[in-house]
Amino acid sequence: MSEDTRFGLGRTVTLPGPLRLDGGGSLAPVEIAYETYGTLAPDASNAILVCHALTGDQHVASEHPRTGKPGWWTRMVGPGKPIDTDRFCVICTNVLGSCMGSSGPASRNPATGTPYAMAFPVITIRDMVRAQAMLLDHLGIERLFAIVGGSMGGMQALSWTATYPDRVAAAVVIASTARHSAQNIAFHEVGRQAIMADPDWRDGNYYAADTTPSAGLAVARMAAHITYLSEAGLTEKFGRKLQGREAKTFGFDADFQVESYLRYQGLSFTDRFDANSYLYITRAMDYFDLAEEHGGMLANAFRSSRARFCVVSFDTDWLYPTAESRAVVRALNAAAAPASFVELSSPFGHDAFLLENAELARLVDGFLRAGDGK
């Protein structure tokens, strides 16, 4: 195995594999890009794995090399913050299938010497977790002090406790779910079809072309971004405000401020994300069904776990509403797993876990301190 730094993405490790996949195949070698913050204890007992959401990456608390923006969770991760890098060694990996350094569709296929594109194997959330476990093995970390994740990161956290029940002491699951609903799958399919309808997609073989399916990817991002917000939040921020005009132009320009906002979100997204990765990761999320993986009963997923759990939802999150978190908590209770649950109030919908929230900060800080007695 080898370890290097490439493309400003931080550390990347190449592991020989093979990584066995739920789809029946395998992947070798396996590249994993990751960031670490803080110092690992001599006995490796203070490691916290932070798992990112669909369009996130390993730059949880460091400047993003492509956008120059601060890390996506600097509010929560850092010295003296709830996930305190003075006390813990925090690790964040770019998930399998993504495009910020870990193996994915844009990676070189060793069999052809060209990018995998759509020849990359179909992956699942559990495959992402297995790849993370390979990295922890490489780093000499046998057991995590905690695993923390929101949205798709919460799915990874749940899958970790079920797949490696002896390797996780605590799990914080925020704004997440144990399975995707039909509505979740429907929104993802709209995004995937937008990408594949873009003529520049070229059946996924656009890496050598002068263009990328940026128009389709932008539309996919716009559709998804709506689900991350709340009606109240959109109304408060935009309402029916026009773009600095007193009257509508009655055309197809962005008359309304909310239109301009969504277009900006879509276009800026295409500068940092790969369209094929979006296809693969959304499909992995849609396949996720933790109960189905354990005989159809969600409680079975947690019966062997030795972790204590903290589950958090937000009252305006309609992507993963509180009912989804309650279903997880009921399963934890049925499995006699120690669990706490809270629904927090926020006008910001699903994205609330990424934004300033003093209650969430206190909750995570207290939960982690209870685990180390500090």
Radius of gyration: 20 Å
Order of helices and strands: EEEEEEEEEHEHEHHHHHEHEH
What is the CATH level 1 assignment of the largest domain?
Alpha Beta
Strand content: 15-25%
The N- to C-terminal Cα distance equals 38 Å
GO biological process, one term: methionine biosynthetic process
Function: Transfers an acetyl group from acetyl-CoA to L-homoserine, forming acetyl-L-homoserine.
Protein name: Homoserine O-acetyltransferase
Family: Belongs to the AB hydrolase superfamily. MetX family.
Architecture overview:
- This protein is an alpha/beta fold and 374 residues long.
- It folds into two domains: 2-181 and 288-372, 3-Layer(aba) Sandwich (Rossmann fold), CATH 3.40.50.1820; 184-281, Orthogonal Bundle (Rna Polymerase Sigma Factor, Chain: A), CATH 1.10.1740.110.
- The protein is built from nine helices and 13 strands.
- It has helices at residues 125-139, 152-163, 182-197, 214-228, 231-237, 257-269, 275-287, 322-334, 358-372, and strands at residues 2-5, 11-15, 19-20, 26-27, 30-37, 47-51, 77-78, 83-84, 89-93, 146-150, 170-174, 308-314, 339-344.
- Strands 1-2-5-9-6-10-11-12-13 form a nine-stranded mixed beta sheet, with helices on both faces. Strands 3-4 form a two-stranded antiparallel sheet. A two-stranded parallel sheet has the order 7-8.
- Helix 1 crosses helix 2, helix 3 (182-197) packs antiparallel against helix 7 and helix 4 (214-228) crosses helix 6 (257-269).
- The longest helix is centred in the middle third of the chain and has 16 residues, at 182-197.
- The model is unreliable at 1-9 (pLDDT under 50).
- Belongs to the AB hydrolase superfamily. MetX family.
- Transfers an acetyl group from acetyl-CoA to L-homoserine, forming acetyl-L-homoserine.
